[in-house]
């Protein structure tokens, strides 16, 4: 804490504080002595009253001294600075105000939203800046941006923008907002300050660590209360994620309870003309999953909606899902080993929903147009295109060829660099006398659900005279089938897409598996399971969040006027054509509103997508500012007025004037008391 005087030239007037003391001392000068006939009675009176008069004199002296000191200080105009920061009135101030406009700021605390309170505090920070100062406002959302391209002096315009601003439904990029603020302050002369006005929502701010330059001060202002009850739909997905027409689909909807009390609510599900509901009892700070079933008769993109009864925070009470229903699954078979490839093709041709065809190694380049690729006798062709297919969530069934590099197979599956398989080649082993049978190694895998409890149909039936020999598979949980001597027969790797290593040569010369009754349903279940995305691909592949730009890739050359993007109300979203790698992409402007969006090509549907509320914004609980966005040093204040007082100081003369009037009144009362006593 530090005090400075604005009228420091009047500091010599401080000697006037001594005036009451000097008057008091002069008044106590020794009076002349006059002799009377008898003064004994007067001396006795003085003796009895002197001990009372002396304290009265001292009280009056103290009051008059304080009054004189107060009057002098009023003329000096003192300023009080908290924390000893006095640079604001002598140097240029450069202030970057980060205003949180993320979705959680839409919650109503009291009579206004958290965002409205934040804008009011930011406006208070900007008020009082002088012409030598600069400032800017940075909006914290998914793609932070500033009002001015650089620090500016038009503070009234900034305050107008704060009044007109609207809260978004987006999550926030905290580090990017601080980066923008720091870059704007870089090179500025004078005092540099970043003021953050936010609710400091726990899920967004708790673990964030911010690096700011040493010469930049960080001030945090919190708006909103710490706790706010809320029910939210966390996720909405379907299995299988890419269903077939006529296939029963399970819709999974997860609901969170962000409150200290158990809550009961109703969850609604709608798709086409179908409407369903489900009552849910949620424990305190708990989660429940509801399941709805539906079957689509046709093949197109359908729209499904899950919603809750509206609560105080409505943004996360609804979630949308696009379901891309196909008529069939396209399967490309590379027949380097013809016997197994023909057995695959014959089985798949028996399935009404499978469209299998032979392709060559030349087709394993660029973008592969098949849903599932089956490689019979693969030795390393088309690695780049196959890897990209897996990253996109596709399925690959690979039977290695004789002499294939196992490390190359693992690299294709995203498992390169394993010391157990380094520099090893697989080999084909064939014997007419020594045969092998299969056994299930992982009964919990979804491929075997159809065969649970089956008496006559088994996926392990058949005898094998040939197989591929390679080292024992280390992650045993990924081995679905194995031989009677524990050599892996079928391995499943789910990293991005689904990758099967097939070690079961088929054909009359190798095995009898393809002739068993369980072979066809086993192949069907394996192909169907390959549609399920791995842990690197979201099930909601057409899902976006507020602030994102939607994209559409066109196989044919198209003009910009041919393509449009429309929301549910048929309002058109601006799009632009961009080229990448020789392909045309249509990119929309950032979308701010949740809901369904449809791509149109010359008036016909060409694609669809949904924009959903970001789950990270549903937990409305907050943390203390000192725990949010940890920096090397920061100052915590309660409001924009405190920031002004830190910068400009607190003017003490109005308070001193009140004190002076109080002292004058007290002196008058003291004199009245002295006269009466």
Task: Give a written overview of the molecule.
- This protein is an alpha/beta fold and 677 residues long.
- The protein folds into five domains: 2-84 and 653-676, no CATH class; 90-227 and 620-648, von Willebrand factor, type A domain (Rossmann fold); 247-326, Immunoglobulin-like (Sandwich); 331-529, Class I glutamine amidotransferase (GATase) domain (Rossmann fold, 3-Layer(aba) Sandwich); 543-607, Immunoglobulin-like.
- A hairpin with a 3-residue loop joins strand 25 and strand 26 (498-502).
- Helix content is 23%, strand content 30%.
- It contains twelve helices and 36 strands.
- The strands form nine sheets. It has an eight-stranded mixed beta sheet with strand order 18-17-19-20-26-25-24-22, with helices on both faces.
- Residues 534-540 have low confidence and may be disordered.
**Annotated CATH topology of the largest domain:** Rossmann fold
Relative strand content: 25-35%
What is the helical fraction, as a range of percent? 10-25%
Main β-sheet, spatial strand arrangement: 18-17-19-20-26-25-24-22
How many whole angstroms does the radius of gyration measure?
40 Å
What is the general shape? elongated
Q: In a few lines, what is going on in this structure?
A:
The chain has 12 helices and 36 strands. By secondary structure, it is an alpha/beta fold.
Strand-helix topology:
Layout (H helix, E strand, L loop, with lengths): L1 E4 L13 H9 L12 H37 L1 E4 L11 E8 L7 E2 L2 E2 H13 L7 E7 L4 E2 L8 H10 L9 H12 L5 E8 L3 H4 L10 E7 L7 E10 L8 E11 L4 E9 L2 E9 L4 E9 L5 E8 L9 E7 L4 E7 L2 H11 L5 E5 L13 E7 L4 H9 L3 E6 L5 H7 L14 E4 L7 E3 L25 E4 L9 E5 L4 E7 L3 E5 L16 H11 L13 E2 L6 E4 L8 E5 L4 E2 L1 E6 L2 E6 L6 E7 L2 E8 L23 E3 L2 H9 L1 E2 L1 H24 L1
Parallel strand pairs: 3-6, 3-8, 8-9, 9-35, 17-18, 17-19, 19-20, 20-26, 27-34
Antiparallel strand pairs: 1-2, 2-36, 4-5, 6-7, 10-11, 11-14, 12-13, 12-15, 15-16, 21-23, 22-24, 24-25, 25-26, 28-32, 29-30, 29-33, 31-32, 33-34
């Amino acid at each position: 804490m530090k005090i400075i005087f604005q009228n420091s030239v009047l500091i010599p007037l401080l000697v006037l504080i001594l005036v009451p003391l000097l008057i008091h001392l002069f008044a106590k000068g020794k009076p002349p002595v006059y002799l009377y006939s008898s003064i004994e009675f007067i001396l006795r009176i003085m003796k009895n009253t002197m001990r009372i008069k002396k304290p009265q004199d001292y009280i009056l002296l103290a009051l008059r001294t304080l009054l004189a000191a107060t009057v002098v200080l009023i003329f000096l105009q003192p300023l009080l600075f908290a924390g000893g920061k006095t640079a604001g009135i002598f140097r240029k101030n450069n202030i970057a105000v980060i205003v949180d406009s993320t979705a959680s700021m839409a919650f109503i605390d009291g009579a206004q939203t958290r965002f409205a309170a934040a804008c009011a505090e930011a406006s208070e920070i900007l008020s009082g800046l002088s012409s030598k100062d600069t400032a800017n406002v940075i909006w914290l959302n998914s793609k932070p941006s500033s009002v001015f391209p650089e620090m500016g002096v038009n503070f009234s315009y900034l305050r107008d923008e704060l009044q007109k601003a609207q809260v978004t439904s987006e999550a926030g990029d905290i580090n990017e907002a601080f980066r923008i603020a720091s870059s704007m302050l870089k090179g500025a002369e004078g005092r540099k300050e970043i003021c953050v006005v936010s609710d400091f929502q726990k899920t967004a701010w708790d673990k964030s660590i911010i690096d700011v330059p040493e010469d930049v001060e960080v001030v945090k202002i919190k708006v909103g209360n710490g706790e706010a009850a809320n029910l939210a739909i966390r996720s909405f997905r379907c299995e299988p994620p890419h269903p077939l027409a006529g296939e029963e689909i399970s819709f999974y909807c997860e609901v969170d309870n962000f409150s200290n009390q158990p809550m009961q609510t109703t969850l609604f599900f709608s798709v086409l003309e179908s409407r369903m509901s489900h009552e849910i009892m949620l424990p305190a700070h708990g989660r429940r999953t509801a399941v709805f079933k539906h079957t689509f008769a046709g093949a197109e993109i359908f729209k499904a909606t899950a919603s809750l009864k509206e609560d105080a925070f409505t943004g996360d009470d609804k979630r949308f899902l696009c379901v891309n229903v196909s008529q069939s699954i396209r399967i490309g078979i590379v027949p380097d080993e013809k016997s197994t490839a023909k057995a695959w093709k014959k089985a798949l041709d028996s399935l009404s929903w499978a469209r299998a065809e032979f392709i060559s190694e030349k087709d394993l380049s660029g973008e592969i147009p098949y849903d599932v690729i089956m490689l019979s006798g693969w030795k390393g062709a088309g690695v780049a295109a196959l890897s990209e297919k897996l990253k996109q969530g596709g399925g690959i069934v690979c039977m290695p060829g004789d002499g294939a590099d196992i490390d190359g197979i693992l690299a294709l599956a995203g498992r390169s660099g394993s010391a157990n398989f380094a520099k090893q080649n697989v080999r084909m082993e064939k014997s007419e006398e020594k045969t092998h049978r299969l056994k299930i190694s992982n009964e919990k895998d979804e491929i075997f659900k159809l065969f649970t409890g089956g008496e006559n149909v088994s996926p392990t039936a058949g005898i094998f005279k040939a197989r591929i020999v390679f080292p024992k598979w280390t992650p045993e949980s990924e081995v679905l089938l194995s031989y009677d001597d524990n050599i892996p027969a079928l391995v499943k790797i789910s990293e991005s897409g689904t990758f099967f290593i097939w070690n079961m040569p088929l054909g009359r010369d190798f095995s009898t598996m393809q002739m068993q009754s369980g072979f066809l349903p086993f192949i069907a279940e394996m192909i169907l399971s390959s549609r399920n995305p791995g842990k690197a691909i979201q099930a909601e592949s057409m899902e976006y969040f507020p602030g994102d730009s939607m994209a559409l890739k066109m196989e044919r050359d198209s003009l910009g006027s041919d393509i449009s993007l429309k929301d549910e109300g048929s309002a058109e979203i601006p799009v632009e054509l961009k080229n990448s790698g020789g392909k045309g992409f249509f990119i929309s402007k950032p979308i701010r509103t949740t809901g369904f969006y449809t791509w149109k090509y010359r008036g016909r549907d060409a694609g669809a997508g949904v924009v959903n509320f970001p789950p990270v914004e549903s937990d409305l609980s907050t943390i203390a500012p000192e725990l949010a966005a940890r920096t090397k040093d920061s100052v915590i204040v309660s409001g924009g007025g405190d920031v002004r007082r830190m910068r400009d100081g607190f003017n003490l003369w109005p308070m001193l004037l009140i004190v002076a009037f109080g002292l004058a009144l007290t002196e008058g009362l003291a004199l009245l008391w002295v006269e009466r006593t």
